[in-house]
Specification:
8 helices; mainly alpha
Length: 254
């Protein structure tokens, strides 16, 4: 590939990542995250893309299973059994190992912001890998669409892990929030890929992304609106502990 073309592709990958990072950062208006933490999360996402690539190479060396039922069934197994779960697990791993230890991780919306930053780094690395095999229009489309797609999937488990940390009242509930949110993200990711690979149904795949994006926007708005409320505007009944709980407030469980 022409070096100028390759440099253009890498520049597009960086530009797309930066645009969406600024977008998600703007959603945390109540208590913006330190820039070095967001960039650290992006870097962790790049590393997680490398990890996912190694996992896929290892599975390919062993051999993917070949279920009966034709190409559609085989694509379903690939998307729902491998691509979705592996990529979401690889993105969630640095979140659990590092991001949850950030002292600035102090409110539920941070789960969405940091998970999205990791996903944006993952998408940027993935886009860079595809540069030698893509035309310029494809590079532009991937550079600006892929970060959003990965981010909305990651925001599902990002919120689930944050809710488990700040609001779940028992270890069992915390575990369920983590497992179910990760499973939901992997399933949505698999559904997106399945629609494209099995049926070339880009409109249906876009509908999956759009639905999760709107849900994410609603949840972020709810969380930040609560954080923006002045103390005098909060109903005392909302902040008093509920009977039978360990003292967590209604605001913590929103």
């Amino acid at each position: 590939m022409d070096p100028t073309m390759y440099a253009t592709g890498l520049g597009l990958a960086v530009a797309g990542a930066l645009v969406w990072l600024l977008y998600f950062d703007s959603k945390d208006r109540a208590a913006p995250e330190p820039r070095h933490r967001l960039l650290s999360a992006v870097f962790l996402g790049i590393l997680s893309a490398g990890l996912a690539s190694l996992v896929f190479e290892a599975i390919e060396a062993i051999g993917y299973p070949e279920p009966g039922g034709g190409p559609v069934v085989g694509t379903a197994v690939l998307c729902f059994g491998f691509v979705g779960p592996i990529e979401e697990l690889c993105k969630a791993l640095p979140f659990v190992l590092f991001v949850l230890r950030f002292p600035e991780f102090d409110e539920p919306v941070d789960g969405i912001i940091y998970a999205s930053a990791i996903a944006i780094g993952f998408a940027a690395a993935e886009t860079a890998l595809y540069v030698p095999h893509s035309s310029l229009p494809d590079q532009v489309a991937r550079a600006f669409a892929s970060p959003l797609t990965h981010a909305v999937f990651a925001s599902v488990w990002g919120y689930g892990f944050a809710h488990a940390r700040f609001s779940a009242e028992t270890p069992r509930r915390r575990a369920w929030w983590r497992v179910l949110s990760l499973a939901l993200a992997a399933t949505a990711h698999g559904l997106y890929d399945f629609a494209i690979f099995a049926f070339d149904a880009s409109l249906a795949a876009s509908g999956v992304t759009l639905s999760l994006w709107l849900a994410m926007l609603y949840k972020v708005r709810t969380l930040t609106r609560t954080a923006d409320l002045p103390e005098s505007a909060v109903d005392p009944a909302d902040v008093l502990p509920r009977s039978g709980t360990d003292g967590r407030s209604h605001l913590e469980n929103s």
